[in-house]
């Protein structure tokens, strides 16, 4: 039953450019990522994909520039 679910998830259509980029990243890194807990390539790939999607959908952090004080001269 687990294998049928894995095949169904893999057959999902790509929904956005971020989705495609994250799938490509997971595919490229899944066999080079260490797996000390013996989770397996499917779980490791899913973790890589989910981390990538969180980075892609997270709001961009802006650095706030503060005005310089004219204290020292």
Write the layout of secondary structure elements.
Elements: H1 2-10, H2 17-29, H3 41-57
Helix pairs in contact: 2-3
Structure description:
By secondary structure, the protein is mainly α. It has helices at residues 2-10, 17-29, 41-57. The longest helix has 17 residues, at 41-57. The protein starts with a helix and ends in a 16-residue tail after the last helix.
Give a nutshell description of this structure.
This protein is mainly α and 73 residues long. It has helices at residues 2-10, 17-29, 41-57. Helices cover 53% and strands 0% of the residues.
The main β sheet shows up as: none
What sequence of helices (H) and strands (E) makes up the elements? HHH
> Given the structure, what is the number of helices?
3
Give the strand content: under 5%
- Which runs of at least 5 residues are low in confidence (pLDDT < 50)? 1-6
Number of strand segments: 0
- Shape, please? elongated
- Structural class call reads mainly alpha
The proportion of residues forming helix, as a percent range, comes to 40-55%
Which short descriptors sum up this protein?
73 residues, mainly alpha, elongated, disordered N terminus
């Amino acid at each position: 039953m687990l294998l049928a679910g894995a095949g169904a998830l893999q057959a999902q259509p790509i929904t956005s450019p971020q989705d495609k980029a994250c799938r490509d990243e997971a595919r490229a890194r899944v066999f080079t990522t260490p797996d000390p807990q013996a989770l397996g390539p499917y779980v490791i790939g899913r973790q890589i994909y989910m981390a990538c999607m969180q980075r892609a959908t997270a709001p961009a952090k802006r650095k706030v520039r503060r005005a310089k004080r004219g204290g020292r001269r």
